[in-house]
Fold these 4 entries.
Entry 1:
Amino acid sequence: MSRNKPVKIARRTVIKFIAAAAAAPALWPGLAVQARKVAIEKGRKNHKGPAGTPSDPDLINPVVPWELTLSDEHLGMLETLCDMIIPADEHSPSAGSIGAHDFIDEWVSAPYDGMKRDRVTVTEGLSWLEKESDKRFSATFADLEEEQKTSICDDICHVASSAPEHVRGAQFFDRVRDLTAMAFYTTPEGMKDLGYIGNVPLTKWLPPPREVLQHAGLIPDDE
Amino acid sequence: MPKSQAEYDVIVVGSGAAGGMSAFILAVHGVRVLMLEAGRDYDPVTETPMFQLPSEAPLRGASTPEKPFGFFDATVDGGWQVPGEPYSSDQDVNFKWWRSRMLGGRTNHWGRISLRMGHYDYKPRSRDGLGFDWPMNYEDVEPWYDKTEALIGVYGSNEGLENTPDSSPGVLLPAPAPRVHELLTQKTCAENLDIPVIPAHLAILSRKQDADHWPARLFPNNPLAQKVVRQSMRERAACFFATPCGRGCSIKANFQSTTVLIPPALATGNLDIRTDAMVREVTTDARGRATGVHYIDKQCGEDRHASAKLVILAASACESARIMMNSRSTLFPHGVGNGSGKVGKYLMDTVGAWVGGQIPALENMPPHNQDGASGMHLYTPWWLYQQQARGKLDFARGYHIEMYGGRRMPGAWAFAGLGNDTGGAYGKRLKREARRYYGSYIGYAGRGEMIPNEDCYCEIDPSGAVDRWGIPTLKFQWKWSKHELNQARHMQHTFRDMIEAMGGRVTSTIHKDGADAIAAPGEIIHEVGGAIMGKDPDRSVVNQYCQSHEIPNLFVADGACFVSNADKNPTLSIMAIAWRSSDYIVDQMQKGTFS
């Protein structure tokens, strides 16, 4: 369980360098860019880059400008819950292992109305989860056995079909599930799991492969 | 630098589609231009986050009030709310005014959809008795559509469909092959609904421009123009079919004023740019001629004046109208060029409505790259002109259909709601469901024509409100007519039929009342009007060359001059009309008109 921002930023930086290195040399018109810059410096005044404000952040070196606010205790519970929602399998690691709980901290600590509402949902939900774990199993959520955690999650995993006393718990679970999926599927690990294979420069754009057209019923299957 | 009155021939206020094009055309013809931009300098080559993943951004790149299209969107200091730059409207109006305070304006992030207005679109009143006719015909503007498309680079095809003009041979770049969700839409629409689905037109280089051919074709007998255009075309790479266009493009494969118009304009040596220069007023002399502009130097907060022989407003429709209305004097008590009282009037946005769906045929798709050109490869132009002419529909004007879907890079909300949609999946089952449903969601957006009316306008806020620079702010009024509301309902019903014909499940609410389906005014960011063209100086603000009826050396070259707002996204027409206007200015200058 780590809540230290430097680790997270370092990971981001590494990803950025990898992406830039993969893309840069072959396709960027480097010499032409140099010529253009000279022309621009001649004609322009007031040149400066991003101001670093919320409406003009540095897009190349992103930072999270607000303080993270969740307690270590809440983060520990969230990490356990994130791993329940997206566990490791043969395709990819668990959501907790890629820091989904830290992302939820970033989300609910943000200075925006929607995120402030989510903060209430998440912290109240975690308190409920702790009480429920104690009530059912006389233990903290993080210490529960797998089937014990599952028995609680099964009661709150679907808002529409949950018992009246579990509706709020289900709303909490659904929000954490959305945020966990948001955290996970926007990372290289999550994208690989989905089979997203874009974001790479191509020299030529081709029509969909034959098997794809067949899959969608656009052409007949092979005999 | 000398501070004489004639330091510049022309001041261009704004640096986006109209400002960039005007400055470029004038500069390549040897006109000395000063461009004033209210936002900061911006360089897409060094500032564009091309390959960054959402996980590298705060909040996974999700929308915030300061970055409405997400963290990596190119927009700087922009959105429907800009700090320190308020506007108002009555409570039930809810007009949303988008600004992009940056060099290049909203061309840095726009959708690149480049559709020509057609014959009907220039003469709508003659056709159905509503709105106004433009003072010129499609044929009058057609050569500038060709030139603009060739200069900026637009992919697409010529299909010969009604009021959907073909480009001249060789002008368009090849349309990229459609993706599977687009092909499925096309097949379903053809077989079940008789709706055409054809290659979209987007300002993206599907291959490199012919830098040996076009400069001489576009600018015969102009060696300077040919030189800078040749250099510009050679510096632009072809699209590599990755990275979202809305972030901007560091390899210059799509159109931005900052990559396509401003660099060659600067290369002429005839353009100076002052950024952080917020224009508040056009100044005039005792004869009623424009002499220049007052602007706030935002870096020091001081008021400055710049002089020129001619002023072009290209600050975006509402901002140009605001500058005009704020330019009051004894000669022009209601603002410059506003003797008709029509400045600020007849604002239009685009009618927008949306429906999402989930398509089982697209589930569990074999992995393959569906990034494509970022934007759509196929679209549907308006196809019911004849039904409308026969009075079969309860709205007078058309819309086109934009389509979104496929296995694109997952964004922040890509799987929001998946748990509830799958009866509560979590754990390993949630991961299986994500793999199954990824790429099976589709969305159709309607973009339709709004007819100008007397109830949609902006004015200087009667409350006396000012922005952080002390400049009086705008107040908006808005009222849709039944044509827009009925059209929005028709859009939703059409999209529902399309999704159901594909065997899919509609995931949006289909509204009975168009008022619930239609996007808020200003939300589509196609606001035009406010200084409309016309032949009659009592009923319009500028002539067909964007020239003020009252002040011959004042031009309004942006969307403010639009007389109608066809379903064709306005940017391409803004540029074609601005180029035509600048050619007129050059011609008049050569005759000595403005000296």
Note: The two ends of chain B are 21 Å apart (CA to CA).
Entry 2:
Amino acid sequence: MQKRLLLGDEVIAQGAIDAGLSGIYAYPGTPSTEIMEYIQTSEEAWGKKIHCRWSANEKTAMEAALGMSYCGKRAMACMKHVGMNVAADAFINSAVTGVNGGLLVVVADDPSMHSSQNEQDSRFYGQFALIPVLEPSNQQEAYDMTFYGFDISEKLELPVLMRITTRMAHSRTGVRLREKRRQNELRLPANPRQYVLLPAIARQQYQKLLHQQPVIEQEAGSSGYDAFIDGTDPSLGIIACGIAYNYLTENFAGNVCPHPVVKLSQYPVPAELIRTITGKCNKILVLEEGYPLVEAQLAGLIPHPGLKICGRLDGTLPRAGELTPDIVAAALGLAKPADRPAPAIVVPRPPALCKGCGHTDMFHVLNEAMKDYPPGCVFSDIGCYTLGALPPHLAINSCVDMGASITMAKGAADSGLSPSIAVIGDSTFTHSGMTGLLDVILENTPVVVVISDNLTTGMTGGQPSSASGAIEKICLGLGLPEERLKVLVPLKKYQTENVSVLKESIAYAGTSVVVFRRECVQTAARRVRSAGKQ
Amino acid sequence: MKTDIILAGVGGQGILSIAAVIGWAAIDSRLYIKQAEIHGMSQRGGAVYSHLRLSDAPVASDLIPTGKANVILSVEPMEALRYLPYLSGNGWVVTNTRPFVNIDNYPDAVSLTAQLEALDKRILVNADELATRCGNSKAANMVMLGAAVPFLGIDVGQVETAVRNIFERKGNAMVDLNVNALHEGYTTAQQQMSLRSANPPAS
């Protein structure tokens, strides 16, 4: 048996390769990015011709994965939690169509928002879609679950959601690998009509999905990933979901919890396991990363006499933020070690744009061009340039979701705000900005769209951007008049002329696009280094 | 055997390379390991850390509980102090003394030195200087790793093998630089420890 030191994300990638994956589709997003990156750099994956190119966004990724599954092959779609909102239409409907080849959707949630704008819990999406959800408690389980996930996906003919969180995605450990499986041959679905969600067919498919619900629950109860572990002290029973199980056992000698425990790594929650633990314990503590999904199911709306449910809802655990061994220890009432505070001289060190970054020069131009206007006129988006909201730039006023800068600027302009500016990166533009720009152009809304093009997807580590070499053609193709498109180089030496071009665009009573284009300093440095090696 | 290590520094200082070397050495030594790290936005010149846990028995949590770390290994002095809440009562702080100043309100040198000198169990190393002496200041992270080796519970030879393996694909010059840096740090830490045991601090 081989043992390799891998990140949680890499474990899932290797598991998928070993389980007979034919293609992975994804858009970069912390903490999910390394799943695709691992497969892209795996010689084994190239040898097996596994498709591994980035998609334009999570929706196109989800749909392409469904198309591969339609052909009988095993496919995986990977994204961060907020990417699931983008993919949701395809995701929810893929549960109604059902699948042919195994389809595993891996979503990495980011509780505590280490690198995200919210901490939504993707388990709700699985529940919403009425499909099996896997939540591995450790990396070995994550590896094994990729095999199992493809298996039940093919057995139940449903997509399967694997939900992980930051500490699983970005923690490394030794993992034992299994014997590898072959990919599936191309084989069209026996009933291709199932993919035609006309109302009459959709109603049949939905009934089929509803009838499968007890089977899905039985599967969770019998796979072994959910388990009841008896304890000597029934004064408290504990339900621990995913990696919360580790934070629980961490607090006891030999990692053995004295209380009865239900370890949950697969959903829907098997009712039988819950009956077992509530039959033994009158007080239940629910430990789960993210939202109180299980706790709310257990508590319901009406009180259960003689049963007390504790967790995030009753204040035993904080309502927000990721769990830690310390937070779990406090919920268990265990003694904590003496405080050893950091000295007062320690100050925060927030992230900042790199030295020499083109976004910085773009913000200098923008702030200069906007200095005679009141604040509050610049909408922005998701990427490194979101740091323009912080000192010293204080240049932008919004960061909501991918592409929202352009459409929010439109709504603001429609309300009478003038000027109304959108600042968006190149990769975010092709992810979800293009359709919004079409809305703006169709009405010739007075909005200046600044596309800060660093020729890469910078914040997630420099993945290729679908926008590279295509931005001008896209804008013109959407109907932007050629004279309203300007392309500038954000360098200090062009500051004066760049400011005057931007000011002219701001003064124009219609739609303009101003592209600031200079390669990301990080990817440029990497390119020079790798050229030097060759 | 159980060693819990907080790795600390600023994005780009190479703490993930330190983690990779220790990880390799741990797997070679047939130890259990978990190592949680931070990716994404905070890497842009922000404070970064990694929780690294080594044990001869399976490790439960990916995160180290507060007050339980045996070692804080930091490539930057203020960052070493940031994670003191994680350090156990008899834990060691092994840190580079060369500040990385990319913020306006960085503490002044006198207060920073005073805080470091106030630590009971400490190894203070000017890693940039020692790495430069080895040939390149970029090997400062390997100097710091060397300085922490006495506290890891892994033999220095195992760590050296891991350094050789990790840097192999970057060529012989890089291997030599990093191996020398590792030993430079290791020697410095041992000198400081023998000096301290010859002249224990007055209590």
Note: Chain B touches chain A through 53 residues (CB under 8 Å).
Entry 3:
Amino acid sequence: MKKILAALLAASLCAGAFAGCSGDSGTSSTPSGGTGGGGGDGTTDYSQQEAYTVKLMIPGDAKTEDCQEVSEAASKILEEKFNTTLDIVRVGFGSYPDQVNLMFSSGEKLDLLYNNRDIFVSAVNNGQIVEMTPYLEEYGKDLLEQIPQERWDCTSIDGKVYAVPANKEIAVSWGFACVKEMADATGVDYSNIKTEEDLLPLLRAAKKMYPDVWPVVASYGGMSTMNTNDDLGADIGSLEDCTDSSNTTVVNWYATDAFREICERRYEWAQEGLIIPDASSTSEDASAQIASGKGFGMFTNTKPGIENELEKKTTKEMLVFTLTPVYTTTTRLDILWYVAHNSEKPERAVQVLNELYTNPELENICINGIEGKHFEVKDADKGIVGYPEGVDGTNTGYPSYPWAWPNEMISYIWDGDPEDLWTATDEWNKAAVISPAMGFSWNNSSVLNQVTACTNVKSKYENALVTGSIDPDEAIPQFLQELEDAGVNDIIAEKQRQLDEYLANKE
Amino acid sequence: MVEVHKKSLWKRLRPYFPLYLMMVPGAIYLIINNYIPMAGITIAFEQFNYSKGMWGSPFVGLKNFEFLFKTKDAWIITRNTLLYNMAFIVLGTVLAIAVAILLNEIHSSLAKKIYQTTILVPFLISIVVVSYLVYAFLSSDSGFINNSILKPLGMESVSWYTSPQYWPFILILVNVWKGLGYNCIIYYATLVGIDKGYYEAAVIDGANRWQQVVHVTLPSLKPTIITLTLMAVGKIFYSDFGLFYQVPMNSGPLMDVTNTIDTYVYRGLMSLNNISMSSAAGVYQSLVGFLLVLTANWVVKKLSPDNALF
């Protein structure tokens, strides 16, 4: 009797569980089924479309009421044109990835979202985002026209487009930033600093003059390396020097002489007291340490306007030395816009994205908020804006992060930035050396075990090595051995195979 | 037959009916919160696809579990997780009981309250704050140990965050310090409940303080010790993420002694965004925990049937 009861109970439990869950999957699969039939009415006047609300998610903590107000202002434009309303949701940078994952898995309504490149391949493989190709032809005409093919390549897998790359600086170079006042005080002639090695006299002089300040500080336990390697999307296996277009051999960057040289130099520096101790376990941003007077300089990426950007963070006038050529790779298209799998009408999401990318009025509202409340036009001719009286970065209800939006280059320039910021950015992009593998998207799904193991090995050694915390003579051979045990060669071989295939198809 | 059985079942249950009624809310909570979501175990065996959902994703068998066993890290993380937890269980229990007994011996109620609160405070501190407290001791730049202890003694300063040999002790110390107050309260509550008559009888028989502890206090604590230990054994394959990730400041060179299953999975999958592989790790942990509880309970049952959990 007891057994029967138990069995019954178990059965009803299971039934409940199944019912509950199949219900879930039912709702989440309907939208993707329904999308096929949507769209395609062939007309160009979209104002009579069925009413729809596009929910958009972007990081950067903002007040809910301010978001609503901005959404309403943006909706006015969109309603007239597309009978669409916009609902902007902003979440803090720290919790953004978790929030996005939660939205994906709960099946809650979500149409458009910002995310960085890191999740691109996994999001495609996991079915978290929707393929855009079928909608671009009709709803994203301007996108197709304005975004160059090599950028589309970077956001496509097997010829299918999955994301729209944000239009911003897409090239990078690496360099060293330090406090100008202190550098001047040392009296060292810094006009000829071209490589990391050249920094040494300046760092030594700074150390001598300011014994309580560390010449080089680290950011969250890491330090950028001054080189031009292309990591081909993610994971281990890179082109050692992507400015050399003739070489497309995938190598283990940690096994190269260039990497060893960097580690050896930094280890020497650390021994000399030029790098802050415990650098690999800092949990602070380098600019915060410079702001608090603990640090003199840091390694950083460079781009047009970088001095201003760093000055805002460090509150000190900064001097930036560029130490590598300007180059661009697939990974540099780091901000992408996706359509979520739980979008009920992906075509409408693409339509809004298209409008955001091309309509300065709409894009400016979304980026900067309400005129008079969140920003004020300082110079209408030059398109320069600033904070209204009494408002600043710490108390605004709608902080402005232009680079996070689809197209910052059609938005206002903030007071303090160079007036020609967008032209300079455009020139910067054009001047960049393009990696021969630009456009290649690495798909790691066949070597996931090796990737997991290698990521762990990497987190054990990488930061400690590039911050000079451990002796490379001992650590690098161990590092390489452990990587090999973790299956790094499988990853590199697979990457090489995919890259060769990509290059062959490209020709 | 069935009829008779039904009646007798009802008859047997009837006297306890109010008790069963009291169990209902808890049982409903358990079913909704712990049993229904168990269907999610399926995710660990498939290549999960968000747009296809839990029942539509392709089944891949045990493939998601491979990454846990493939490398030689598998041995290190399993060893670390098990050994640390065993040390935590043994030391944590012994010290908590010792402190609970000492507390019980204090007669001034004001002093008792002060001590109790003081040892409970660490338990209430967030692990992130704890990690900075530890950092204040160990930092090479401004740390208390290097600057105020080793330097005056004329000893070479130690770079703690790159020296793995010290960390097993540091982590155990931190964990015991943090958890002691809470465990101690549970034992202390049992101690307070022990019938004073036993102690009086012991005193009449000429038992001294130590003999009272050995022959009265400890035997009375036995059921509590067994229950708490069994529960802890069930969690032996889980590690306190904050303790192993935050307290060593995620320092790479320490990873051989600080990497546990949880931190390994976190580091490996954070960038991969792979929900199936993380579920596989979770399933593996609970399965081993489940088997260990069954075994431990079986052993207890053999040794002292009264004290087994089930």
Note: The longest helix of chain B spans residues 73-105.
Entry 4:
Amino acid sequence: MKRIGVFVCSCGSNIEGAVDVCKVVEAMSKEPYVVYAANCKYMCSSSGQELIGKAAAEYELTGIAVCSCSPRMHEATFRKAAASAGLNPYKVEIANIREQCSWVHKDTAEATGKAITLAKAAVSKLCRDEELYPQSFPVTKRALVIGGGIAGIQTAEDISNAGYKVDIVEKKPSIGGKMAMLDKTFPTLDCSACILTPKTVDISHNENVRIFSYSEVESVSGYVGNFTVKIRRKARYVKEDLCTGCGLCAEKCPTKNVPNEFDLGLGSRSAIYIPFAQAVPKVAVIDPDSCRMLKDGKCGLCSRVCGAKAIDYSQKDEITEEKYGAIAVATGIDPIDVTPFDEYSYKNSKDVITALELERILNAAGPTNGRLVRLSDGIRPKTVVFISCVGSRCTEEDERGKTYCSKICCMYTAKQAILIKEKYPDTDIYVFYIDVRAPGKNFDEFYRRAAEKYGVKYIKGMVGKVCDENGVLTVKAADLINNEQMMIGADLVVLAAAVEPDKTAKALASKLNASIDGNGFFNEAHPKLRPVESPTAGVYLSGACSGPKDIPETVAQASAAAAKIIGLLSKNTLESDPCTAHADELKCSGCSLCANVCPYNAITYIEKEFRMPDKTVKIRRVASVNAAVCRGCGACTVACNNGAMDLHGFSREQILAEVDSICS
Amino acid sequence: MEFCYFPGCTLKNKAKDLDRCARLCAEILGVKLTELPEWQCCGGVYVSTSDDVAVKLASVRALIAAEERGLPLLTVCSACHNVLKRTEHDLRTNAEFAAKVKAYTGSEYKGTVKVVHYLEMLRDLIGYEKIRSAVKYPLDGMKIGCYYGCMLLRPGRVMRTDNPEDPVIMEELIKALGGEPVAFPERSECCGAYTYAESETLTEKRSERVVQSAKNCGAEALVTACPLCKYNAGKYGDLPVLYFTELTAKAFGV
Amino acid sequence: MKNIVSREEIIEMSGTDPAKCMKCGKCSASCPAYDEMEYPPHRFVYMIDQGNIGPLLECVGIYRCLSCYACVDRCPRGVEPAKLIEAVRVIAERKKEGNRIKAGELFEKADADMPSQAFSAAFRKYTK
């Protein structure tokens, strides 16, 4: 016999302000199977939860309907209360009479009528609720971090410090990411390499951490706690375990003029190279596109000079398969391509550069050994113009730029201006800005220092055009405060390029079944309350893959992601939500429609024997749902032509009962 | 290859060379230019306000006439091209404008006419290779600044002639003719246009700047597709200014 | 100019929305006629957004805009300042008695070499 209790929450005045809760109680007490109905000021309070417990015992309730806020808020609270009272927690239904009722209706009669309708629908569904039990499954106690920049390094470090194993997959030959390319960091002007290299060195010696450099994620299968990941280890043509990083091969290599990626093509490297002095792992790599031996089979010099016998021209890409409990995405950001902004003459003038290129020029290990010079003629620039917001804050229709503020540009521009002024105080520096955005600890003070102490000329107004007349640059701008158009003869122009997600992010997101936004940044499970989790269970977001971030913010998020992963790995087993899909094998035709729409790859097909009425045995292909992977989204139930797919806790019968109740 | 040809008023008097050379070169390249009968002046400048229908009717009539003949509409003058191309865009994208126009003219534009500038025809339909082979007297060593002005290129989203900030369509032609194009930053900036009666200084300052920029980059002559650019740059600058069709005709030996 | 022109009227006529402006001034930085205008493009857009259109109807800048569309093509926000200026000019011409410049004067000021394109364009821009 069904015995249902209805609990109507006032939510202070949130619900009571528009809904006559007493009328709702009165109406619900007359409904079939309802043996108890009551109102409470705050159902989520401890007294509200006690009310559920008491009524359940006194009236021997078999199901509980709570008329309150959205189930996103307190479904878990009321399920726990029901469980404490000895009920199956899935025999709880929530009628949302706040967000979908009291908050959107002003008229009390109308709102009360709607609240009663919603409550009745919840009771109709509740009458058809089955008892559900979560499944439990084990957790692989190893994490994968994709991306070896400062975010990935921090996440891996924190997870390993908690005693868990971590693998880092980095697509480049060395970890270190963008931070390794920077000269100094704002707002303290620490040397970037000086604060990064202790971490890269530490992590390379950490017993819990394996670094798969020059590697990429090939495919991902499985689910939270039990991922299986195939990793492509690209051929280096150098045996990683034998190479000592002495660098003799690079010194002797006859092909010297290859653009150096680490210096953004401003400097050159040899065909066999170590990306930079502090590379981790410090192992050489051969670029097959420029190596004479690999292209024409003629050379082999590096092999001859290598004392460690580490060169292996026959190396091939290898795929290794690893198991993980959790995955952290730490793919970071890149500056956008500024060549489409032709009004700034980046493509045609060597002396119009991006901020990251300037970073390499200012870096002592960079292509000019830290001397600030023009790339066209090697002469030190006397007038430097910085242009902010190149490609940031554009309208959606703009094909060249991004709609968002790239967040880090105002600060790195101030930093670079200060660095130049420190080294060459007689340099004239102009910063053209729209707004200076410096909302961080000691950030605004830092920017003010650039203007006040270093005399950097901040001019409000965007640059219209950079004219290059035979190598002579003229910046055409408007000073909006002084109300005048300006023509500035500049020796060097620096573009603060917008940032965008790493090029690999999109493909990776689809391998992980993790969603990305229109700009290609990874979506958070909740933008405010779950910022380091993706909506896909077991996939976490570390650093700037979810949006532009500076180093401190990246590190904070990276540690937060690590904390979430440690929380997951600390469990021996995980429980899955039992509200999952299941196939009625008798109705299933094996057509694959459900598997095609499943966003989580939770549906596979099995060949199954069926005994037919004539006693013969027939083998049929039927759908089988992996309950651990299924997230209960219901896409398959809609796709199935035969009505074979149904959801536990949200069955077709239950939904129709709700609809019937609302329509009657 | 046949086009409806809209010469425009300037090409019938002050810019006769632009027209004459365009026709001669077309003949050599095997292009038939059929002048639209009874075409009317485009107005010289496009008026962007939504309720100005009457001023665009001349362009609409030209488009409808070309559509009836089933031919693309070719122009040489930058201004005509700008007005015709933008009016054509309006007809396809602004239903209210199209309806008003229909009420005025009594006939409907279906949206099938391609408005083509002579330079686009050379690039897209003839090809620079064929032009190169038609050259009899290459422009050896001539350093030429290609002056686009504004109307050939902008608004970029409608005109789609070339990249408004870094165009190459004329430079490529000069190369094919054996000349040495000189890119200068002012080449897609306005010459000061039609403001002679409004401001004493605007055209002078603008055109001086344009010519100076070309000289700074080493140009010995300017080439343009716009009669007004030619006039202003010639009046206020000290470089010879030629139409691109004149130069093409010279190289073709006609 | 007795009749007050509304912001909405300008938006309707020009087909562009001044509220999209983020006040970066790239239009004014690009404008070849900047020195000839009382209200440079960025300020023009701002005044329309504020509904402060009276002074714009009276200014000479509306006749100095070259309609070169550099501001339109470079605006990162998709505002089209040249179209806003054109809308104000057209309204100003319609509202006032007579023309900005008499047709006869357009011919008087021209020299013998001037292309007819310049007359037609000036005629469009300075007369009703």
Note: The mean pLDDT of chain C is 93.
